[in-house]
Structures are given as structure tokens and as C-alpha cells.
From TrEMBL:
Record-given protein name: Sigma-70 family RNA polymerase sigma factor
Record SUPFAM superfamilies: Sigma2 domain of RNA polymerase sigma factors, Sigma3 and sigma4 domains of RNA polymerase sigma factors
Family: Belongs to the sigma-70 factor family. ECF subfamily.
Signal peptide: none
GO BP: any one term: DNA-templated transcription initiation
Top-rank taxon: Bacteria
Alphabetical keyword list: DNA-binding, Sigma factor, Transcription, Transcription regulation
Domain RNA polymerase sigma-70 region: 30-98
Organism: Paenibacillus sacheonensis
GO molecular function: DNA binding; sigma factor activity
Domain RNA polymerase sigma factor 70 region 4 type: 121-173
InterPro entries: RNA_pol_sigma-70-like (IPR039425), RNA_pol_sigma-70_dom (IPR014284), RNA_pol_sigma70_r2 (IPR007627), RNA_pol_sigma70_r4_t2 (IPR013249), RNA_pol_sigma_r2 (IPR013325), RNA_pol_sigma_r3/r4-like (IPR013324), WH-like_DNA-bd_sf (IPR036388)
S-adenosyl-L-methionine among keywords: no
Length: 190
């Protein structure tokens, strides 16, 4: 079961309110709810386990320090992913990478709930064929199942633009895989 599904959005917002009012220990519930997903998001963007761990840790530290700035106009998850996104972009800029992120792996992923090697290899091969923006859109929509509105809050791109880019990307992936049927679990309308 997905840890985030253990908490309804209302419960997450209640925990956020507790943290805002000084209950710093309540933040550990938020970390537990989002730790794996934030790490995997950072890992897929950075392509390096240690950098992803550091970026995820920085995300939670920044989230804690900035929690007073969170308002539930977007979900807490989208707000936290936006912080993670910016942390990963900072790491990439510091290393002066030009978003050549997904080369063949030199290390095994050491996450306890890791997907099968075949699935993992396929995901990494697929992602390595995309540019940085396409990877972010695909990760947030297909793997994290965010709405276009939530993605808009994370990526600072209009929802309508994201819909178009996602649909073009989805069609290209279906066509490029010669019969491979890539389908997102949810309809692309939102």
C-alpha cells in the first residue's frame, strides 16, 4: 500500500497545521508519507542514488523551514514536489550537467521496495530517450499520477500547455515502441 494513501489530504493538512503551530514532531508523519515518492522523483531526475538521497533530505528540511508559507490552494504533495524539483535543478546546475541524466546504471538501486530489475531497466531506458522537460512531465503525470493543475503548480507551466505536451509525448511513446501500449491509468483531461 502506498504510504501517501494512508493519509487523506485533509489529514495531511491537519498535520501541516500542527507543525505550523509548533508540533515539530508531527512533521515526521509527513516525511513518512512522502519519503519514498520524493526520493524516487529525485532519483529519476538526477540518476544518482547519493544525490537523490541528499536532494530528498534537503527537500524535507526546506519543507519544514518553509511550512509557514504553505497554503492549501494546492495539495501539500504538489508543494513538496515543487521544492524537490527546485532542489534537483539546483544540483544539476551546480554539476553543470546539460540534462544528460540517464546513462547505463553503475549501481543497483538499493531501495527496499524496488521494482523488478526488468521494469526498472525499461523505465530508465524510456526516460533516457526523453529531454528533461519531457521526463518531468512523464514522471509527474504517469508515475506520480498528478493532475495537470498540480503539475502546473510544480513546474510553473499552464495546465493546458501541460495537457498538450503530455498528449504529444504519450502518442510519440506509443508510436515509438512499435506496438507497446503506454497508457496512463487516468484520462489525460485532468
Amino acid at each position: 500500500m502506498d504510504d501517501v494513501n494512508l493519509f487523506e489530504e485533509q489529514s495531511i493538512n491537519e498535520i501541516v497545521d500542527l507543525v505550523k503551530h509548533g508540533d515539530t514532531e508531527a512533521y515526521s508523519f509527513l516525511i513518512k508519507a512522502f519519503q519514498k515518492k520524493i526520493y524516487l522523483y529525485c532519483y529519476y531526475l538526477l540518476g544518482n542514488q547519493e544525490e537523490a538521497e541528499d536532494a530528498a533530505q534537503d527537500t524535507f528540511i526546506s519543507g519544514f523551514n518553509q511550512i509557514g508559507q504553505f497554503f492549501p490552494t494546492v495539495s501539500f504533495a504538489a508543494w513538496l514536489y515543487k521544492i524537490a524539483h527546485h532542489r534537483c535543478m539546483d544540483v544539476l546546475k551546480k554539476k553543470n550537467r546539460r540534462f544528460h541524466l540517464f546513462k547505463k546504471y553503475q549501481q543497483e538501486l538499493t531501495v527496499s521496495d524496488q521494482p523488478s530489475d526488468r521494469y526498472s531497466d525499461y523505465i530508465h531506458e524510456l526516460l533516457s530517450s526523453l529531454n528533461a522537460e519531457e521526463r518531468r512531465i512523464l514522471l509527474l503525470r504517469a508515475l506520480e499520477e498528478y493532475s495537470f493543475e498540480e503539475m502546473s503548480a510544480i513546474l510553473d507551466i499552464k495546465p493546458a500547455t501541460l495537457r498538450k505536451k503530455y498528449e504529444r509525448l504519450r502518442k510519440r511513446l506509443i508510436k515509438g515502441k512499435g506496438g507497446f501500449h503506454y497508457e496512463h491509468a487516468y484520462k489525460t483531461n485532468g
